[in-house]
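Checklist before submission:
- one chain only
- standard amino acids only
- sequence pasted in full

Submission:
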Amino acid sequence: MAKSNDWIPMPRFLLRKSAIKQLMRKLNLKNKKVLEFGFGSGEMLRWFHSEGAKTSGVDFSSAAVSMAQKRLRDFNLLNEIELLPNSEKIPASSMDVVCAFEVLEHVKDDTGVLHEWMNLIKPGGSLILSVPAHMSKWNESDVWAGHYRRYEKQQLIDLFKKEKYEIVSLWNYGFPLSLLLDKFLGKSKIKEVKNLADDVEKEALSQKSGTERQNKLVYRMISNDIVLYPFYLIQKLFFEKDIGSGYLIHVIKHDKK
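Returned file contents:
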């Protein structure tokens, strides 16, 4: 199991985080109840808390829970943020914001899970999701991570066609850097994918994908806000274009039957 100080945010994670922060600051999270599914290392949980949110998270991966606990303890936040193994005890219509970043593609029944997530949100509350974009970009890293799919823009729009759902924004983030990074990551996973057992389940691959990172010097050198800041600015210019490698969507749940 990875130690907390072994976890390095990959450039694609930081590009996504920058976009999420830009989108979610418009919501004013102070004193809002924010729940994240699939919190992985707990990095976004820390940011929600820093924005004044009443923060909790659900992750079915024991490795993710252990890592997040260690990291939050290191930041003296373990008693401030609630970590849960499932959502069974969370009341319906109790959350102001529900988030799931790079989670939906790991779920076979994505429509069923979306229904469960939306059921937890108060009328007027928000669902914030990110997913990988474009099946044409599918490669070995998707296989390694246990993905069922990558998404197309219209496919996401169709998931929220019900009258009570309103898509406020649908951004395509990451251009141009993540396109190069995804190709590099795919090539780096060729050997690992080739050595996967034939009977390995996607769920097992999903559990490790949120926490397993290669602690290489090159990643430590480039995976930081200083190096990537110019790319944070560049990707903003292309949020409304459909040429990036990931989608970030903000959906509001209205009180309609």
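Reviewer check: The longest helix spans residues 11-24.
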